[in-house]
Design brief:
Layout (H helix, E strand, L loop, with lengths): L2 E5 L2 E3 L5 E8 L7 E7 L6 E6 L7 E3 L7 E6 L4 E6 L8 E8 L12 E2 L3 E5 L2
Length: 124
Amino acid sequence: QVKLVESGGGLVQPGGSLRLSCTGASFPLGSNNIAWFRQAPGKEQEGVSCISSLTDGPRYYADSVKGRFTIGRDNDNNSVYLQMDSLQPEDTAVYYCAADPLRLSLSPRHYTFWGQGTQVTVSS
């Protein structure tokens, strides 16, 4: 059974930074397109960022996080990170990573494998 695990969430003050990590136990993240999604209470799930499985392949960001968040791979550790800078209260949500071998988009319906999520809270 494919298992993705997110880590790195927590409580941070506005303007602060967090780095989320998505790892795959016995699952080759390097062979998959990976995306980060988030869901705040009472809101729909939102695509945050995604990265292609191809070396130097495309990366996409939601307009709401462009210039503040950076997605990248750490293939030595079979992980994908989401560096989040200049965090704001509206970034508060549960963040999920998802994987798919074929599709790359910010739509959650295009992803086959999901993690359980990690809570990010931005508050003073």
